Amino acid sequence: MRLALIGALLLATTAAAQDLTGHGGPVSALAAGAAVAVSGGFDGRVILWDSTQASALRIARLHDGNVTAVALAGETRFLSAGQDGRIALWDKGGADPIWSTPKEVSPVSALTLGGDQVAAGFLDGRIARIDLATGAMTLHPAHEGRVAGLAFLPDGSLASVGGDLRFSRWDSAGTLLARTSLPDLPNGLARAGDALAIPFAEGALRLLSPEGEILPERFLSERPLVAVAANAETVAAAAVDGTVWLLDLPTLAPRAEVPGGTGPVWALALEGETLFAAGMQGVIRRLSAVDGASLGGTPLATASLPEDTSRGAEVWQACAVCHSLDPGDHSRAGPSLHGVLGRRIASVEGYDFSPALRAMEIVWTPETISELFEFGPEAYTPGSRMPDQRVGDPADRQALVEYLSRFAP
Ligand code: HEC
Protein backbone atom coordinates (compact mmCIF):
# COMPACT_ATOMS: atom_id res chain seq x y z
CA MET A 1 0.00 0.00 0.00
CA ARG A 2 2.73 2.37 1.02
CA LEU A 3 4.81 1.43 -2.01
CA ALA A 4 1.83 1.94 -4.30
CA LEU A 5 1.29 5.35 -2.81
CA ILE A 6 4.92 6.33 -3.31
CA GLY A 7 4.73 5.05 -6.89
CA ALA A 8 1.66 7.19 -7.52
CA LEU A 9 3.41 10.22 -6.09
CA LEU A 10 6.43 9.66 -8.26
CA LEU A 11 4.26 9.43 -11.33
CA ALA A 12 2.36 12.53 -10.32
CA THR A 13 5.51 14.63 -9.97
CA THR A 14 7.65 15.31 -13.02
CA ALA A 15 11.35 14.73 -13.44
CA ALA A 16 11.74 18.42 -12.64
CA ALA A 17 11.37 17.75 -8.96
CA GLN A 18 14.36 15.52 -8.43
CA ASP A 19 17.40 16.12 -6.27
CA LEU A 20 20.71 16.24 -8.13
CA THR A 21 23.05 13.40 -7.24
CA GLY A 22 26.48 12.76 -8.72
CA HIS A 23 29.25 14.17 -6.56
CA GLY A 24 31.39 11.68 -4.72
CA GLY A 25 31.39 13.63 -1.46
CA PRO A 26 30.20 16.93 -0.05
CA VAL A 27 29.23 19.68 -2.50
CA SER A 28 30.92 22.99 -1.72
CA ALA A 29 29.73 25.39 -4.45
CA LEU A 30 26.49 25.90 -6.33
CA ALA A 31 24.81 28.22 -8.86
CA ALA A 32 21.46 27.84 -10.62
CA GLY A 33 19.88 29.28 -13.77
CA ALA A 34 16.50 28.76 -15.42
CA ALA A 35 17.23 25.31 -16.85
CA VAL A 36 20.78 24.49 -15.75
CA ALA A 37 22.74 24.42 -12.53
CA VAL A 38 26.45 24.09 -11.82
CA SER A 39 28.09 22.61 -8.75
CA GLY A 40 31.58 21.98 -7.42
CA GLY A 41 32.64 19.45 -4.84
CA PHE A 42 35.29 18.37 -2.39
CA ASP A 43 35.89 15.59 -4.93
CA GLY A 44 37.43 18.21 -7.28
CA ARG A 45 34.65 17.82 -9.84
CA VAL A 46 32.57 20.54 -11.48
CA ILE A 47 29.20 19.36 -12.79
CA LEU A 48 26.88 21.19 -15.20
CA TRP A 49 23.33 19.91 -14.65
CA ASP A 50 20.20 19.93 -16.74
CA SER A 51 18.13 20.85 -13.72
CA THR A 52 14.77 20.02 -15.30
CA GLN A 53 15.89 16.46 -16.07
CA ALA A 54 18.12 16.23 -12.96
CA SER A 55 20.89 14.81 -15.15
CA ALA A 56 24.56 15.75 -15.53
CA LEU A 57 25.33 17.43 -18.89
CA ARG A 58 29.03 17.74 -18.35
CA ILE A 59 31.57 16.74 -15.70
CA ALA A 60 34.68 18.91 -15.77
CA ARG A 61 37.93 18.12 -14.03
CA LEU A 62 40.77 20.55 -13.61
CA HIS A 63 41.10 21.52 -9.98
CA ASP A 64 43.46 19.98 -7.58
CA GLY A 65 41.49 19.78 -4.32
CA ASN A 66 38.20 21.34 -3.37
CA VAL A 67 36.19 23.39 -5.88
CA THR A 68 35.45 26.49 -3.80
CA ALA A 69 33.18 28.56 -6.08
CA VAL A 70 31.18 28.30 -9.31
CA ALA A 71 29.10 30.69 -11.43
CA LEU A 72 26.91 30.41 -14.51
CA ALA A 73 27.66 32.57 -17.56
CA GLY A 74 24.48 32.02 -19.57
CA GLU A 75 22.90 28.61 -20.14
CA THR A 76 25.91 26.80 -21.62
CA ARG A 77 28.97 28.42 -20.08
CA PHE A 78 30.14 28.24 -16.49
CA LEU A 79 33.02 29.26 -14.27
CA SER A 80 34.81 27.26 -11.61
CA ALA A 81 37.41 28.22 -9.01
CA GLY A 82 39.41 26.09 -6.65
CA GLN A 83 41.52 25.73 -3.61
CA ASP A 84 44.35 25.28 -6.10
CA GLY A 85 44.01 29.00 -6.96
CA ARG A 86 42.81 28.44 -10.51
CA ILE A 87 39.75 29.94 -12.18
CA ALA A 88 38.39 28.47 -15.41
CA LEU A 89 35.68 29.19 -17.95
CA TRP A 90 33.98 26.14 -19.47
CA ASP A 91 31.53 25.45 -22.23
CA LYS A 92 28.99 22.62 -22.29
CA GLY A 93 31.07 20.89 -24.98
CA GLY A 94 34.83 20.51 -25.38
CA ALA A 95 37.24 18.64 -23.17
CA ASP A 96 39.27 21.60 -21.94
CA PRO A 97 38.29 24.90 -20.40
CA ILE A 98 38.01 27.91 -22.75
CA TRP A 99 40.58 29.57 -20.53
CA SER A 100 42.05 29.01 -17.09
CA THR A 101 44.23 31.16 -14.87
CA PRO A 102 47.52 29.88 -13.44
CA LYS A 103 47.89 28.56 -9.90
CA GLU A 104 50.12 31.39 -8.84
CA VAL A 105 47.87 33.47 -6.55
CA SER A 106 46.38 31.74 -3.50
CA PRO A 107 43.27 29.60 -2.94
CA VAL A 108 40.13 31.19 -4.38
CA SER A 109 37.57 31.95 -1.69
CA ALA A 110 34.86 33.85 -3.63
CA LEU A 111 33.73 34.30 -7.22
CA THR A 112 31.08 36.40 -8.97
CA LEU A 113 30.14 37.47 -12.45
CA GLY A 114 28.85 40.87 -13.60
CA GLY A 115 28.34 41.43 -17.33
CA ASP A 116 31.67 40.73 -19.04
CA GLN A 117 33.70 40.85 -15.87
CA VAL A 118 34.53 38.07 -13.44
CA ALA A 119 35.67 38.99 -9.94
CA ALA A 120 37.48 36.47 -7.74
CA GLY A 121 38.58 36.82 -4.13
CA PHE A 122 41.54 34.99 -2.66
CA LEU A 123 42.60 33.65 0.71
CA ASP A 124 45.44 36.18 0.78
CA GLY A 125 42.95 39.08 0.63
CA ARG A 126 43.43 40.11 -2.99
CA ILE A 127 40.72 40.53 -5.61
CA ALA A 128 41.19 39.63 -9.29
CA ARG A 129 39.27 41.16 -12.19
CA ILE A 130 39.12 38.80 -15.14
CA ASP A 131 37.85 39.55 -18.62
CA LEU A 132 35.20 36.92 -19.36
CA ALA A 133 36.10 36.76 -23.07
CA THR A 134 39.87 36.40 -22.79
CA GLY A 135 40.72 35.32 -19.24
CA ALA A 136 43.11 38.29 -18.85
CA MET A 137 43.51 38.99 -15.13
CA THR A 138 44.53 41.97 -12.99
CA LEU A 139 44.85 41.89 -9.19
CA HIS A 140 44.40 44.48 -6.48
CA PRO A 141 44.76 44.26 -2.69
CA ALA A 142 41.40 44.38 -0.88
CA HIS A 143 41.33 42.77 2.58
CA GLU A 144 43.73 41.72 5.27
CA GLY A 145 42.64 38.12 5.42
CA ARG A 146 40.39 35.96 3.31
CA VAL A 147 37.90 37.50 0.89
CA ALA A 148 34.72 35.88 2.25
CA GLY A 149 32.23 37.12 -0.34
CA LEU A 150 31.80 39.21 -3.49
CA ALA A 151 28.81 40.65 -5.35
CA PHE A 152 28.35 43.13 -8.17
CA LEU A 153 25.81 45.91 -7.61
CA PRO A 154 23.50 47.28 -10.37
CA ASP A 155 25.83 50.27 -10.94
CA GLY A 156 28.71 47.91 -11.78
CA SER A 157 30.59 48.47 -8.53
CA LEU A 158 31.84 45.42 -6.62
CA ALA A 159 31.05 44.74 -2.94
CA SER A 160 33.38 42.58 -0.87
CA VAL A 161 33.55 41.31 2.71
CA GLY A 162 36.68 39.92 4.34
CA GLY A 163 38.27 38.10 7.22
CA ASP A 164 39.45 41.53 8.45
CA LEU A 165 35.78 42.17 9.40
CA ARG A 166 35.38 44.81 6.74
CA PHE A 167 32.86 45.61 4.08
CA SER A 168 34.28 47.37 1.00
CA ARG A 169 32.96 48.57 -2.33
CA TRP A 170 35.16 49.11 -5.39
CA ASP A 171 34.87 50.66 -8.84
CA SER A 172 35.96 48.69 -11.90
CA ALA A 173 39.53 50.04 -11.64
CA GLY A 174 39.85 48.73 -8.06
CA THR A 175 39.48 52.15 -6.40
CA LEU A 176 37.81 52.07 -2.99
CA LEU A 177 34.34 53.70 -2.97
CA ALA A 178 33.14 52.78 0.54
CA ARG A 179 34.46 50.91 3.56
CA THR A 180 32.87 50.03 6.90
CA SER A 181 33.58 47.69 9.80
CA LEU A 182 31.50 44.59 10.40
CA PRO A 183 30.47 43.39 13.87
CA ASP A 184 31.64 39.80 13.34
CA LEU A 185 33.26 37.40 10.87
CA PRO A 186 31.34 37.29 7.54
CA ASN A 187 30.92 33.96 5.73
CA GLY A 188 29.57 35.02 2.35
CA LEU A 189 27.76 37.73 0.44
CA ALA A 190 24.73 37.76 -1.87
CA ARG A 191 22.92 40.56 -3.64
CA ALA A 192 19.44 40.84 -2.13
CA GLY A 193 17.39 43.29 -4.20
CA ASP A 194 18.98 46.71 -3.61
CA ALA A 195 20.85 45.49 -0.53
CA LEU A 196 23.45 42.86 0.34
CA ALA A 197 22.85 39.81 2.54
CA ILE A 198 25.68 38.55 4.74
CA PRO A 199 25.77 35.43 6.95
CA PHE A 200 27.98 35.70 10.04
CA ALA A 201 29.94 33.23 12.16
CA GLU A 202 27.97 34.24 15.28
CA GLY A 203 24.76 32.96 13.64
CA ALA A 204 23.34 36.33 12.51
CA LEU A 205 22.12 37.29 9.05
CA ARG A 206 22.44 40.99 8.20
CA LEU A 207 21.37 43.19 5.32
CA LEU A 208 23.75 45.97 4.36
CA SER A 209 23.16 49.00 2.17
CA PRO A 210 25.62 49.56 -0.72
CA GLU A 211 27.28 52.13 1.56
CA GLY A 212 27.80 49.47 4.21
CA GLU A 213 25.20 50.57 6.78
CA ILE A 214 23.52 47.72 8.63
CA LEU A 215 19.84 47.49 7.74
CA PRO A 216 17.77 44.77 9.48
CA GLU A 217 19.61 41.94 11.22
CA ARG A 218 18.29 38.63 12.44
CA PHE A 219 19.95 36.19 14.86
CA LEU A 220 19.06 32.77 13.51
CA SER A 221 21.35 30.25 15.16
CA GLU A 222 23.93 29.61 17.82
CA ARG A 223 25.97 27.86 15.16
CA PRO A 224 27.87 29.73 12.42
CA LEU A 225 25.94 30.59 9.28
CA VAL A 226 27.96 29.31 6.33
CA ALA A 227 25.91 29.85 3.17
CA VAL A 228 23.59 32.48 1.67
CA ALA A 229 21.58 33.00 -1.52
CA ALA A 230 19.12 35.75 -2.39
CA ASN A 231 16.93 37.26 -5.08
CA ALA A 232 14.71 40.35 -4.98
CA GLU A 233 12.12 38.83 -2.56
CA THR A 234 13.85 36.12 -0.59
CA VAL A 235 17.04 35.41 1.33
CA ALA A 236 18.06 31.86 2.20
CA ALA A 237 20.76 31.11 4.76
CA ALA A 238 22.18 27.89 6.17
CA ALA A 239 24.00 27.03 9.37
CA VAL A 240 26.85 24.60 9.80
CA ASP A 241 24.41 22.09 11.38
CA GLY A 242 22.42 22.03 8.11
CA THR A 243 19.41 24.12 9.21
CA VAL A 244 18.13 26.31 6.36
CA TRP A 245 16.07 29.50 6.79
CA LEU A 246 13.97 31.40 4.26
CA LEU A 247 13.36 35.08 5.06
CA ASP A 248 11.37 37.85 3.40
CA LEU A 249 13.02 40.91 1.92
CA PRO A 250 13.46 43.68 2.86
CA THR A 251 12.36 42.98 6.46
CA LEU A 252 14.19 39.68 7.08
CA ALA A 253 10.96 38.33 8.57
CA PRO A 254 11.47 34.55 8.88
CA ARG A 255 9.21 32.63 6.51
CA ALA A 256 10.33 29.05 6.96
CA GLU A 257 12.92 26.97 8.80
CA VAL A 258 14.04 23.60 7.46
CA PRO A 259 15.75 21.44 10.09
CA GLY A 260 19.12 19.93 9.26
CA GLY A 261 20.18 16.51 10.45
CA THR A 262 22.61 15.32 7.83
CA GLY A 263 25.55 17.63 8.39
CA PRO A 264 26.44 21.08 7.10
CA VAL A 265 24.90 22.79 4.09
CA TRP A 266 27.89 24.43 2.35
CA ALA A 267 26.13 26.12 -0.57
CA LEU A 268 22.72 27.48 -1.56
CA ALA A 269 21.26 28.76 -4.84
CA LEU A 270 17.87 30.36 -5.51
CA GLU A 271 16.17 30.12 -8.86
CA GLY A 272 12.55 31.19 -9.21
CA GLU A 273 10.57 29.25 -6.64
CA THR A 274 13.27 26.65 -6.07
CA LEU A 275 16.02 26.65 -3.47
CA PHE A 276 18.93 24.29 -4.10
CA ALA A 277 20.81 23.24 -0.96
CA ALA A 278 24.05 21.33 -1.14
CA GLY A 279 26.30 19.88 1.45
CA MET A 280 26.37 16.38 2.67
CA GLN A 281 26.63 13.07 0.85
CA GLY A 282 26.98 14.53 -2.63
CA VAL A 283 23.27 15.36 -2.88
CA ILE A 284 21.95 18.75 -4.05
CA ARG A 285 18.50 19.01 -2.50
CA ARG A 286 15.61 20.84 -4.08
CA LEU A 287 13.36 22.77 -1.70
CA SER A 288 10.46 25.13 -2.21
CA ALA A 289 11.71 28.72 -1.92
CA VAL A 290 8.20 29.62 -0.75
CA ASP A 291 7.83 27.39 2.31
CA GLY A 292 10.93 25.21 2.46
CA ALA A 293 9.05 21.99 1.60
CA SER A 294 11.24 19.22 0.24
CA LEU A 295 10.59 18.82 -3.50
CA GLY A 296 13.30 16.45 -4.49
CA GLY A 297 12.57 13.07 -2.99
CA THR A 298 15.65 12.51 -0.82
CA PRO A 299 14.50 12.01 2.77
CA LEU A 300 15.69 14.77 5.06
CA ALA A 301 17.45 12.51 7.51
CA THR A 302 19.26 9.97 5.38
CA ALA A 303 22.22 9.68 7.75
CA SER A 304 21.66 6.83 10.17
CA LEU A 305 21.65 8.06 13.74
CA PRO A 306 24.29 6.48 15.94
CA GLU A 307 23.11 4.27 18.78
CA ASP A 308 25.66 6.14 20.83
CA THR A 309 23.86 9.05 22.45
CA SER A 310 26.93 10.66 24.06
CA ARG A 311 27.73 14.30 23.38
CA GLY A 312 30.91 13.17 21.60
CA ALA A 313 28.92 11.10 19.11
CA GLU A 314 26.69 14.11 18.50
CA VAL A 315 29.63 16.44 17.84
CA TRP A 316 31.09 13.75 15.56
CA GLN A 317 28.04 13.99 13.26
CA ALA A 318 29.53 17.17 11.75
CA CYS A 319 32.69 15.24 10.86
CA ALA A 320 31.05 12.00 9.70
CA VAL A 321 30.07 13.42 6.31
CA CYS A 322 33.77 13.58 5.43
CA HIS A 323 35.47 11.06 7.72
CA SER A 324 34.84 7.39 8.31
CA LEU A 325 35.91 5.62 11.51
CA ASP A 326 36.48 2.29 9.79
CA PRO A 327 40.18 1.50 9.44
CA GLY A 328 41.41 2.18 5.88
CA ASP A 329 38.11 3.64 4.64
CA HIS A 330 39.21 6.81 2.86
CA SER A 331 36.22 6.91 0.51
CA ARG A 332 34.81 10.18 1.89
CA ALA A 333 36.34 13.62 1.29
CA GLY A 334 38.73 13.24 4.24
CA PRO A 335 40.82 10.31 5.54
CA SER A 336 39.57 7.69 7.98
CA LEU A 337 40.11 8.93 11.52
CA HIS A 338 40.34 5.44 12.98
CA GLY A 339 43.37 5.53 15.27
CA VAL A 340 44.02 9.21 14.65
CA LEU A 341 45.12 9.89 18.22
CA GLY A 342 48.85 9.41 18.43
CA ARG A 343 49.24 9.52 14.65
CA ARG A 344 51.52 11.99 12.85
CA ILE A 345 49.68 14.42 10.62
CA ALA A 346 49.08 13.23 7.04
CA SER A 347 50.73 9.87 7.70
CA VAL A 348 47.93 7.33 7.19
CA GLU A 349 48.41 5.23 4.07
CA GLY A 350 45.95 5.22 1.21
CA TYR A 351 44.82 8.85 1.41
CA ASP A 352 46.10 11.62 -0.84
CA PHE A 353 46.86 14.44 1.63
CA SER A 354 47.51 18.01 0.51
CA PRO A 355 51.17 19.08 0.23
CA ALA A 356 50.44 21.64 2.97
CA LEU A 357 49.46 18.96 5.47
CA ARG A 358 52.31 16.68 4.46
CA ALA A 359 54.80 19.47 5.17
CA MET A 360 53.58 20.00 8.76
CA GLU A 361 54.93 18.56 11.97
CA ILE A 362 52.01 17.79 14.26
CA VAL A 363 51.13 14.68 16.21
CA TRP A 364 47.40 14.31 16.78
CA THR A 365 46.77 14.24 20.50
CA PRO A 366 43.68 15.24 22.48
CA GLU A 367 45.32 18.63 22.77
CA THR A 368 46.22 19.22 19.11
CA ILE A 369 42.86 17.94 17.81
CA SER A 370 41.16 20.21 20.29
CA GLU A 371 43.29 23.16 19.14
CA LEU A 372 42.55 22.31 15.50
CA PHE A 373 38.86 22.97 16.15
CA GLU A 374 39.38 25.78 18.63
CA PHE A 375 41.24 27.90 16.05
CA GLY A 376 39.86 26.23 12.92
CA PRO A 377 41.78 24.35 10.19
CA GLU A 378 42.48 27.55 8.23
CA ALA A 379 44.47 29.11 11.07
CA TYR A 380 45.86 25.95 12.65
CA THR A 381 46.80 24.04 9.48
CA PRO A 382 46.97 26.72 6.74
CA GLY A 383 46.51 25.30 3.27
CA SER A 384 44.53 22.30 4.55
CA ARG A 385 41.79 21.01 2.29
CA MET A 386 39.53 20.55 5.27
CA PRO A 387 37.03 23.44 5.16
CA ASP A 388 37.25 25.94 7.97
CA GLN A 389 35.07 25.02 10.93
CA ARG A 390 35.21 25.29 14.70
CA VAL A 391 33.91 23.49 17.72
CA GLY A 392 33.37 26.50 19.95
CA ASP A 393 32.57 24.94 23.32
CA PRO A 394 35.59 23.45 25.18
CA ALA A 395 33.30 20.75 26.64
CA ASP A 396 32.30 19.73 23.11
CA ARG A 397 35.94 19.54 22.02
CA GLN A 398 36.63 17.35 25.04
CA ALA A 399 33.66 15.10 24.22
CA LEU A 400 34.81 14.84 20.59
CA VAL A 401 38.31 13.78 21.61
CA GLU A 402 36.94 11.22 24.09
CA TYR A 403 34.74 9.83 21.33
CA LEU A 404 37.71 9.59 18.94
CA SER A 405 39.81 7.83 21.57
CA ARG A 406 37.36 4.91 21.43
CA PHE A 407 38.61 4.26 17.91
CA ALA A 408 42.17 3.55 18.95
CA PRO A 409 44.45 1.67 16.55
C1 HEC B 1 33.69 18.79 4.43
C2 HEC B 1 34.64 17.78 4.73
C3 HEC B 1 35.24 17.69 6.12
C4 HEC B 1 34.62 17.82 7.34
C5 HEC B 1 33.17 18.19 7.62
C6 HEC B 1 35.63 17.51 8.33
N1 HEC B 1 36.81 17.22 7.73
FE1 HEC B 1 38.53 16.71 8.65
N2 HEC B 1 39.48 16.60 6.86
C7 HEC B 1 38.89 16.80 5.64
C8 HEC B 1 39.88 16.69 4.60
C9 HEC B 1 39.63 16.86 3.10
C10 HEC B 1 41.10 16.42 5.24
C11 HEC B 1 42.46 16.25 4.57
C12 HEC B 1 43.05 17.65 4.45
C13 HEC B 1 44.29 17.78 3.60
O1 HEC B 1 44.81 16.79 3.06
O2 HEC B 1 44.72 18.94 3.47
C14 HEC B 1 40.81 16.37 6.68
C15 HEC B 1 41.76 16.12 7.66
C16 HEC B 1 41.48 15.97 8.99
C17 HEC B 1 42.44 15.64 10.01
C18 HEC B 1 43.91 15.32 9.79
C19 HEC B 1 44.03 13.84 9.56
C20 HEC B 1 45.44 13.30 9.47
O3 HEC B 1 45.58 12.09 9.34
O4 HEC B 1 46.40 14.10 9.55
C21 HEC B 1 41.78 15.56 11.20
C22 HEC B 1 42.35 15.21 12.55
C23 HEC B 1 40.40 15.86 10.93
N3 HEC B 1 40.26 16.12 9.59
C24 HEC B 1 39.40 15.87 11.88
C25 HEC B 1 38.09 16.26 11.63
C26 HEC B 1 37.06 16.35 12.66
C27 HEC B 1 37.25 15.93 14.11
C28 HEC B 1 35.96 16.88 12.06
C29 HEC B 1 34.64 17.26 12.71
C30 HEC B 1 34.72 18.22 13.79
C31 HEC B 1 36.28 17.06 10.65
N4 HEC B 1 37.57 16.68 10.45
C32 HEC B 1 35.38 17.52 9.71
C33 HEC B 1 37.56 17.07 5.41
C34 HEC B 1 36.62 17.31 6.39
Residue fraction in strands: 35-45%
How many strands appear in the DSSP assignment? 28
Amino-to-carboxy terminus distance: 47 Å
Range of helix content: 10-25%
The level 1 CATH classification of the largest domain is Mainly Beta
What Rg is obtained from the alpha carbons, in whole angstroms? 21 Å
The set of bound ligands, ions and cofactors reads:
heme C
What does this structure look like?
It is a single chain. With 409 residues, the protein is mostly beta strands. It folds into 2 domains: 29-288, Methylamine Dehydrogenase, Chain H (7 Propeller), CATH 2.130.10.10; 311-405, Cytochrome c-like domain (Cytochrome Bc1 Complex, Chain D, domain 2, Orthogonal Bundle), CATH 1.10.760.10. It is built from 6 helices and 28 strands. It has helices at 2-12, 311-320, 355-358, 366-375, 377-380, 394-405; strands spanning 20-21, 27-32, 36-41, 45-50, 55-61, 67-73, 77-82, 87-91, 99-100, 108-114, 117-122, 126-131, 137-141, 147-152, 158-162, 166-170, 176-181, 190-192, 195-199, 204-208, 214-219, 225-230, 234-239, 244-248, 254-258, 265-271, 274-279, 283-288. Strands 1-28-27-26 form a 4-stranded antiparallel beta sheet, with no helix packed on it. Strands 2-3-4-5 form a 4-stranded antiparallel beta sheet, with no helix packed on it. The longest helix has 12 residues, at 394-405. It is globular, with a radius of gyration of 21 Å. The termini are far apart. The structure holds heme C. Residues 26, 42, 318-319, 321-323, 333-335, 337, 340, 343, 345-346, 348, 353-354, 356-357, 364, 369, 373, 384-387, 391, 400 line the site of heme C.
